[in-house]
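Subject line: Sequence and fold of a protein, written as structure tokens
Enclosed: The protein record, placed directly beneath this head.
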Amino acid sequence: MANELYQYSIISALMDGVATGGVALSTLQERGTYGLGTFENIEGEMVMIDGAVHHLRADGSVEQATSTTKLPFAMVTRFEPTARRKTSLPDKDRIIKVGKELFPNSNNCYLALHVEATFKEMTVRAVRSQTYKGQPLSELGSTQSVHTYKDARGTVFGFQSPPFSSGISVAGGHLHFLSADRDRGGHVLALQADEAVLSGASIRMVHIELPESSEFNDAKLDLDQEGIRKIEG
């Protein structure tokens, strides 16, 4: 159904480096049309736009992923916006603020947020692959690749997750960018746009699938709120 969230694994597992194997991309495409995540071994960022899944690599390149690709963490929804607003975006936080204004009764629900704009400035990052099995995401943050683009036309999509989801999802805003020409993108760190169209939907039905692997079973999954905040920007 529209605007239900399917999530594979949890952010605490990714922080602990649980990133071998994962859910097949073809399964995600059955569950949603828009979403985000990362690829096996935490190699780059994933963004799904209108059913197409794009692999945003640390070197700045973008590839369309294949149906057999595995993702150790992903969040997708069959996105159908129920509210829309034209707005300026002086910073990334404005997206979350407008989303909450559009859905004032969703403080403890998830929001799916979609933005179309020509961004005066867009700063994104992409994480490089693990160098050993189980390498925690917090370590990869020190070697992440950061790119800043000027006058970048494209789409931002992501989720605003409620406070109670900390350790399960990224509590707060989690947004990925893909340029209109499909050759630039990444996890959004900062942005600015004079004119943008922001649309969204409230999500009240959430399905979380946990990995069956021994790697997940053996993980401590301690909540590292500071580490999540640091790596997510």
